[in-house]
Design a protein that fits this description.
The structure holds 2 protein chains of 2 kinds. Chain A is of the alpha+beta class. In chain A, a hairpin with a 3-residue loop joins strand 8 and strand 9. The two termini of chain A are 48 Å apart. Chain A has a 5-stranded antiparallel sheet with strand order 6-3-5-4-12, with helices on one face. Helix content of chain A is 19%, strand content 32%. Chain B folds into 3 domains: 168 residues, Rossmann fold, CATH 3.40.50.970; 162 residues, TPP-binding domain (Rossmann fold); 179 residues, 3-Layer(aba) Sandwich (Rossmann fold). Chain B contains 23 helices and 18 strands. In chain B, the strands form 3 sheets. In chain B, strands 2-1-3-4-6-5 form a 6-stranded parallel sheet, with helices on both faces. The N and C termini of chain B lie far apart (61 Å). The chains are: A alpha+beta, B alpha/beta. The interface between A and B is large, with 45 and 61 residues.
Chain lengths: 231, 595
């Protein structure tokens, strides 16, 4: 339909046009927080370790990962494994978000039915991750020496490749990976961080230690470790 | 042999009460279903939960459950399409204040439900969907009509369940029912593999029991209530913003008492329509993209926003930066995740709306001084009136039709709508005074919601309540096959199609933002809806002129059965006021040149 036949005319309601109305001077930022219009600053993104105690039921991992993807939460790593209480599992997440974003992560996680409790770890929490590195086996002595330096273990040594395991916090693992580059890294698998609160502090609120006699045997299945990378 | 079958009514047999013979079954003392297998356990669990109606469509994998319904007191309404079943169940739940029930088979049956489930999720409507599934042993083999239903619906349900055992399936259904209405309501789903519903069991599942951690405490932290009360006492320009949560929590009475006691002007959200009477002097109607100018002025200039049961949707807030930019926000909500999600809450009060409003009512010692502010809001009502003209030489204005219906019906009339311009006119020009009389698709914006919603609402409503569906021509075309259900069940509903032969809201945006290029928004040809209605066995009218409006409405309302009026309205009519997407509420446009 051409515009001159358009039945739509400039019709509307009575009242002052927008420019003749009073308008407040206040503003909010993108997080909906009232701000001083003179001192607007973007809130900083930070890395947080969030731990969730969950019912270890089928689909729990997909519910958690689905939540992160549909709400566009920035996730660096996610690990999951059973606890000593039958039917429970702990999920450890490393997220990179603003403070309101981290708050949303925790609240949305807590709404999932299988999630029992959610906590954010303090900076001093005990953290560790594991890496498996497969490197060329041309210089076994040197590989062994570096593995020793990082308190690692050799898991497999063959004529052409050597596979080692290193555990530790994120920066130690980063350093170790750098050190092994000289041999030529063929394959690498990292678990992502897992963490517990230091000392008596519970990792997730309201968590009770497992009563005596209910400690589960060695986990019958290996824990599923998942790492996502956003890079 | 056919259960619940009512042949399409002969037109002369208009004295039949549509629900009399069928509803009698559900009100008489019914014998509970005897549990013999998973399917009867499912049905028994619904009976134990007090379910009286279910909406659905048959199919292979759900057949055992349908067979169990044969002997049940539950009234099943066979819909034309599963989407219709999900919307009917949703609307039934909205009107009745209980979870609506819908059923479908596996595969396409389940995926057809998804729109209605997503709609319920966005509007926090309690609903339970039961879907058939291929036998457990075949799951994962890409069997006939197999879909990963729990996978598909996980993002749009509060929680869903894959039933794995006949002995526990009844309890699972009970848990899903209870979870749907626990805390913040929402849809749940139970996927029912055929071997589970066929599997033997004689366990009575007992009453529905919500899972652990799903029922939050109704009270807000008393210290937080006192702090909020103090800021309200100090406020000079407070506004109550009542959302859909007020209605869901049955807190309308407390909301009314609070606003009137402290003389606080009231703005509602669209889902909050009916939480506060729109004919009350304090009521400024609803705010947001197509809200009234005075509601948007009040919400822009308030210094204290008392928001109850709202999630600050973008259609309400417009641009976050300019939303109530000078207001201290008191936010009452049952869901902690809504606190500071979109708008920072200075005073979060987590709890049940009715309970917390009572706490707040009691905690305020000094009434805020609001006389000048109330007067200012009244001035804005005069400055930005919702007026329209009705020139005789132009086609009928849609606003006129909505007001004519409102005048011709009682206060407790239920209005359902599709989505688009007609929905906005129905929300703007009808004066709602009671909760659960406005039934619409808000968050998801589902065209086609109106007719199946009217069917669901009809079964939930009292016999003397009228049910009117305002629909657009585009919306109506999406689900009008459900007219067959309305005729088969002889439901007394009136569909008012505000027909402009456009996807009108898209056309309005194209004129404003796309240089009038009406790509895919014009219908070159539309069926004659009045004749289509007659073909279905309903009663149809066509209206082109002002002087035909009142008579058609009167006849349609008097007709005891489904009726359709095809109103050919002004095709150029637009919805105003309008806040441009992401714009400032206070800069609402009153005409296109202001956008």
């Amino acid at each position: 339909m051409s515009s001159d036949e358009d039945p739509t005319s400039q019709r509307g309601l009575q009242g002052k046009p927008p420019e003749q109305r009073p308008h407040p001077t206040g503003r909010r930022n993108k997080q909906g927080i009232r701000i001083d219009p003179e001192a607007e600053a973007e809130p900083r993104v930070r890395k947080a370790v969030v731990s969730a105690l969950v019912d270890n039921e089928p689909g729990v991992l997909s519910r958690v990962s689905g939540l992160f993807s549909r709400r566009q939460f920035n996730i660096e790593s996610l690990t999951v494994g059973p606890t000593t209480v039958e039917g429970n599992a702990r999920i450890t997440l490393v997220v990179e978000e603003t403070d309101p974003g981290i708050d949303q992560v925790k609240k949305q996680l807590a709404k999932l039915k299988p999630v029992m409790s959610v906590g954010e770890l303090e900076n001093n929490a005990v953290r560790a991750e594991l890496v498996l590195l497969k490197v060329h086996g041309d210089e076994p002595d040197k590989v062994h020496a570096i593995t020793q330096m990082y308190d690692g273990q050799t898991l497999d040594a063959g004529p052409r490749t050597i596979t080692v395991q290193i555990t530790g916090d994120e920066s130690k693992i980063d350093d170790a990976v750098d050190a092994f580059r000289q041999f030529g890294i063929i394959e690498i698998a990292r678990t992502g961080q897992t963490a517990l609160a230091r000392g008596d502090t519970p990792t997730t609120p309201g968590e009770e230690p497992a009563p005596e006699g209910t400690i589960a045997e060695e986990p019958s299945q290996p824990s599923a470790n998942v790492q996502y990378s956003d890079d | 042999m056919s259960k619940h079958a009512t042949a399409p009514q002969d037109e002369t047999a208009t004295d039949t009460n549509p629900d009399s013979e069928t509803d009698a079954e559900s009100t008489t003392e019914a014998t509970p279903t005897q549990v013999t297998n998973g399917a009867t356990a499912v049905v028994r669990s619904l009976e134990n939960a007090g379910v009286t109606h279910a909406f659905g469509v048959q199919g292979g994998a759900i057949m055992p459950v349908y067979d169990a319904l044969w002997d049940s007191s539950i009234r099943h309404i066979t819909m034309a399409h599963e989407q219709g079943a999900s919307h009917a169940a949703d609307a039934y739940g909205v009107v009745k204040g209980v979870p609506g029930i819908c059923l479908a088979t596996s595969g396409p049956g389940a995926t057809n439900l998804v729109t209605g489930i997503a709609d319920a999720a966005m509007d926090s409507d309690a609903m339970l969907a039961l879907t058939g599934q291929v036998p457990s042993g075949m799951v994962g083999s890409d069997a006939f009509q197999e879909t990963d239903t729990t996978g598909v619906t996980a993002p749009v349900t509060k929680h869903n369940y894959f039933a794995s055992d006949a002995t526990t399936v009844g309890k699972t259904v009970g848990e899903a029912f209870a979870l749907a209405e626990a805390g913040r309501p929402g849809p749940t789903l139970v996927d029912l593999p055929k071997d589970v519903t066929f599997g033997e069991t004689d366990d009575d599942p007992g009453p529905p029991k919500a899972p652990a951690r799903s029922s939050p405490s109704p009270d807000a932290d008393p210290d937080a209530v006192i702090a909020a009360a103090e800021v309200i006492s100090r406020a000079e320009r407070p506004v109550c913003l009542f959302g859909g949560g007020v209605i869901k929590a049955n807190a309308s009475e407390q909301a009314r008492a609070f606003a009137r006691e402290y003389n606080v002007p009231v703005v509602t959200t669209m889902p909050g329509i009916g939480s506060f009477p729109e004919d009350d002097e304090l009521c400024l109607s609803w705010a947001g993209m197509h809200g009234t100018g005075y509601a948007n002025m009040a919400i822009t200039h308030t210094d204290c926003l008392i928001a109850v049961g709202t999630r600050f949707d973008d259609r309400l807030t417009g641009g976050i930066e300019t939303f109530a930019p000078e207001a201290e926000v008191v936010h009452i909500d049952i869901d902690p995740a809504e606190i500071s999600k979109n708008i920072h809450a200075d005073y979060p009060l987590i709890g049940d709306a009715a309970t917390v409003l009572e706490q707040l009512y009691d905690a305020i010692d000094d009434d805020p001084e609001t006389d000048a502010w109330v007067e200012q809001c009244t001035t804005w009502k005069e400055e930005y009136p919702m007026d329209y003209t009705t020139p005789e030489d132009e086609p009928v204005k849609p606003e006129f039709i909505v007001e004519a219906f409102d005048e011709a019906t009682d206060d407790d009339t239920i209005v359902t709508t599709g989505v688009g311009q007609h929905q906005m006119w129905a929300a703007q020009y009808w004066t709602y005074t009671k909760p659960r009389t406005w039934v619409s698709s808000h968050g998801l914006g589902t065209m086609g919601y109106g007719l199946p919603a009217a069917i669901g609402a009809r079964f939930a409503a009292d016999d003397d309540q009228s049910v009117i569906c305002f629909d657009g021509d585009g919306s109506f075309l999406m689900t009008l096959q459900e007219l067959s259900v309305a005729v088969r069940e002889n439901l007394d509903i009136t569909v008012a199609v505000l027909n402009n032969e456009y996807i009108g809201m898209v056309r309005q945006w194209q004129d404003a933002f796309f240089e009038g290029r009406h790509m895919a928004s014009e219908y070159n040809w539309m069926p004659e809806f009045d004749k289509l209605a007659e073909a279905f066995g309903a009663k149809g009218w066509r209206v082109d002129e002002y002087d035909e409006v009142a008579a058609a409405i009167e006849e349609a309302l008097a007709y005891d059965g489904p009726s359709v009026i095809d109103f050919h309205i002004d095709p150029g009519a637009n919805v105003y006021p309008m806040v441009a997407s992401g714009g400032a509420n206070g800069k609402f446009a009153l005409s296109e040149d202001q956008l």
